[in-house]
Amino acid sequence: MRKLRKLGLLALALVMLFTLVAACNGETAKTTASAPQSEKPAGTDAPADTDAPEKTDPPAGAKNKVALILEGAISDMSWNATAYEGLKKIEALGAEVHYTENTPASAGGDAIRTFADDGYNVIFLSSNSYQDVGAEVAKEYPDVQFFMINSTVTEPNVRSFAIQDAEQGYLMGALAALLTKSNKVGFIGGLPINPIINGGKGFAQGAAYVNEDVEVLSENTGNFDDVAKAKELARAFVGRGADVLAPMANQASLGVMEAAEEEGVKGIGSGLNQETVAKTQAVVAIVKDTSIAYEAAYKAFLEGNMPEEVLPMGAAQGVVYIGDYYIEVPDEVKAELEAIYEKLASGEIKIDLD
Amino acid sequence: MKHSLSTKVTNFVRNLYYPIVAIVASLLLGSLVIIATSTTSPIDAYRSLFVGAFGGLRQFDETLLKAIPFIFTALSFAMAKRCGIINLGAEGQFAIGALMGTIVGVSFPNLPLYLHLPLTLIAGFLGGALFGLIPAVLKVQFGASELITTIMLNYIAKELISYFVNGPIMDSASSSYPQSAPIPETARLGRLIPGMRVHWGLVLALLAVLFYYVYLWKTKGGYELRVVGLNPHAGSYAGMNIKRSIIRSMIFAGGFAGLGGCIEIIAVQGRLMMTSFAVSYGFTGIAVALLGSNNPVGIVVAGLLFGGLQNGALKMQAMTTASSSVVLVVQALVILFVAGRLMFRLRTGRYLKQRTLAIPPVAMDERGEQR
Q1: Nearest to B118 among A3, A15, A25 (CB)
Q2: What integer pLDDT is reported at residue B315 of this predicted model?
Q3: Among the three residues A128, A163, A198, which one is the final residue of a domain in this structure?
Q4: Is the pLDDT confidence value at B3 over 90?
Q5: Residues A80 and A155 in one domain
Q6: What sign has the CA pseudo-torsion A124, A125, A127, A128?
Q7: Measured distance CA(A44)–CA(A237) in Å, rounded
Q8: A338 contacts chain B (CB < 8 A)
Q9: CATH number for position A220
Q10: A183 and A283 fall within a common domain
Q11: How far apart are CA B52 and CA A166, in angstroms?
């Protein structure tokens, strides 16, 4: 036992000694690492010469290399699918493109470094989840242009877009309220990040705009990929009397649409092709076509006029729109929804997000 | 028992044979997966994998960085295995170590570094150790199989992390993404060499490996632990306390994993997130320990290899159409081939002789592994 205690003391002493050394070294490392960055004029296209010798900016006329980092799979018929559409539009504009999918926020930094070290000069971060890690790592690559979707960060080399999830939610809520007979409608969100929370707020306000008496059931599943959990939640809402369901949960949205089909209640899609799992109950998709935002961002990059403020991308920009109706819907419902859409696009209706 | 030089050399070569064959076979089978799932040729995919892992100083730096947590979780598995315990809970112990380290890290922002950093590291170690203690106590008191309890505790750890990052330690300052506040500078582990990303955790990992060796082979407690692992009845007959050995091995096993988790957060990720453990550090650690035959040097080498696979996988996915999941397949195959390594046994005279000796199926070899 005594020997063990001695060993423990020795280990403790080692840890102490070690921290002292690490402390000294850590500080010097920090200063030397940050010095060259602060000297560099931020946002210019000067080739990086200090920290990444193998990385060179493409000469004028060479292809831009554009990378897209996705949190989910491009097959999710929702957020990541439209992002991938956006990347294809960028490819059509003459860029060399590549993407990586199913990248959680904790691996976002590695993904950025991999692309940036390999000479990619435009990197799109597809989700609010990457906001903090993206802002940190972007500082290491002042010569790479970052575009962050649904973030509030603006740095010389970081531009952000705010997709108006709230407007999508508003239209979904309004349509749900127009369609409901039980006066109960359900909203199922994914990971409770700001965009989804805003979508939920929009949904509630949209429903209230149409009919004050409609009760809104709203819940988030906590992630974007658990289809089964979203389905269970949707079923529970139906059990509580909801007869129109609307998901905003990327991949997991499919679970909600499946539940709508099986329970025989109406489902409002949040992306194209979600109706494939709810052939008789899917009403319409309120589409959030982020590919338009991606294309606009890249065009602004090519022209070199990227506004500094966070750009909204919603109904007014054509990003949020009402898709084709899948089933028979009364014309007055369609007309009323169209009118609400116009008011959102013109700014007549403002959504309160506080 | 003294070995002559020639037996030492042949032993060394023999110890290398199975791991290398296992890796080669896994890569070959993995190439079938690449052919089936992508348009990239396996040669191109593996080339970008290995260039991404070991192609230059910067890549090797990243590989070292990725190897550190694997070395810790491999030590966790190996420490328990030496005492005859199969610890499948390094995953959870790693997470709890990370959680405890994060809590101490973000809770005392005003402590000076020389207090804060050691406290954080100790919290990480203790968190993992306590989480490793649970299955050990359940085993020695109630005879509950650690195979089941350690696996199940992994889920509890995962839900605990989810609860904490969505509640008590959720960062209220920035986006609503479920994550803790950033670890303050006073609890961060610095970089080892300026300009490189590898951090002091590498030194800690090597110290842990050294501790593993010294404790098991140079102390009485470690000797007892190994005897209990080889044959508990013999240990008990010799007057050793089996329960105490098991508990001790699991405290160290959990502690190693917990320390690894804590270091991963305070040195690399910078804050705890719900997706912090997207790489299954614990289970990869099992593969590393198996490939390294629970041997200190073997663990370091296998850890570097798996760190390289992990690092190169990102590069491969980013540069080719092959998915990084191919690497998970390769890692799983390595486990299979190491566990079933007798399928690669060379049909030499010794093989025939051994077979006629009719080894009982659960006999242990000198490394405490079931044949």
Answers
A1: A15
A2: 80
A3: A163
A4: no
A5: yes
A6: negative
A7: 53
A8: no
A9: 3.40.50.2300
A10: yes
A11: 41
From first to last of its 354 residues, what are the pLDDT tens digits of chain A?
A: 555 566 555 555 655 555 544 444 443 333 333 333 333 333 334 443 444 434 344 444 568 999 999 988 888 888 899 999 999 999 999 899 988 888 888 888 888 988 998 889 999 999 888 988 899 899 999 999 999 998 888 888 999 988 899 999 999 999 999 999 999 999 999 988 888 999 999 999 999 999 999 999 999 998 888 899 999 999 999 999 999 999 999 889 999 999 999 999 999 998 888 888 888 899 999 988 899 889 988 998 998 888 788 888 888 888 898 988 998 888 989 999 999 999 998 888 888 887
Strands A320-322 and A282-288: antiparallel
For the full predicted model, state whether its pTM sits above 0.90. no
Are B322 and B38 in contact by the 8 Å Cβ rule? The answer is: yes
| Torsional sign, CA B207, B67, B299, B120 | positive
Do A127 and A159 belong together in one domain?
yes
Tell me, yes or no, if B86 comes closer than 8 A to chain A by beta carbon. Answer: no
Contacts of B166 in chain A (CB under 8 A): 192, 222
Q: What is the mean pLDDT of chain B?
A: 86
**Per-residue confidence (pLDDT) for residue A128, from 0 to 100:** 87
Render B208-254 in DSSP notation, one character per residue. Answer: HHHHHHHHHHHSHHHHHHHHHHH-HHHHHHTT--HHHHHHHHHHHHH
Q: Looking at the complex, report in whole angstroms how far the Cα of residue B194 sits from the nearest Cα belonging to chain A.
A: 5
ipTM greater than cut 0.90? no
Please report the domains of chain B, with CATH numbers, ordered by start residue: 57-321 (1.10.3470)
Q: Taking CB atoms and an 8 Å cutoff, what residues of chain B touch A193?
A: 175-177
Q: Please answer yes or no on whether A98 and B318 come within 8 Å at the CB atom.
A: yes
- Let me know whether A190 and A146 are in one domain: no
User: Which residues have CB under 8 Å from B112's CB, separation 6+?
Assistant: B186
Q: List beta partners, residue A96.
A: A65
The answer to whether residue A50 is domain-embedded is no
How far is B70 from B279, CA to CA, in rounded Å?
A: 10
Looking at the structure, do residues A159 and A171 belong to the same domain, yes or no? no
Cα-based torsion angle of the residue sequence A324, A328, A333, A339 in order, rounded to the nearest 10 degrees: 20
CA dist., res. A77 & res. B88, Å (int): 37
Whether residues B317 and A100 touch (CB distance < 8 A) is answered with yes
Tokens linked to B209: 């490996």
3-state per-residue secondary structure call for A215-244: EEEEEECCCCCCHHHHHHHHHHHHHCCCCE
At a CB cut-off of 8 Å and minimum separation 6, what does A72 contact?
A79, A80, A101, A102, A224, A225, A250, A251
Instruction: Note the pLDDT tens digit of each residue in B102-146.
Output: 999 999 888 888 899 999 999 999 999 999 999 999 999 999 999
Give the chain B residue whose CA is nearest to the CA of A71.
B275
**Sheet with A244-248, edge to edge strand ranges:** A215-220, A184-189, A244-248, A266-269, A282-288, A320-322
Q: Are A303 and A259 in contact (CB under 8 A)?
A: no
Contact predicate A133/A113, CB 8 Å: no
B278 touches chain A (CB under 8 A): yes
Which of A114, A115, A151 is the best mutation test for B, with the most CBs of B within 10 A?
A: A114
Number of domains in chain A: 2
B66 closest CA partner among B296, B313, B331, B323? B313
Spatial distance between the Cα atoms of A18 and B203, rounded to a whole number of angstroms: 9
**Is B10's pLDDT higher than 90?**
no
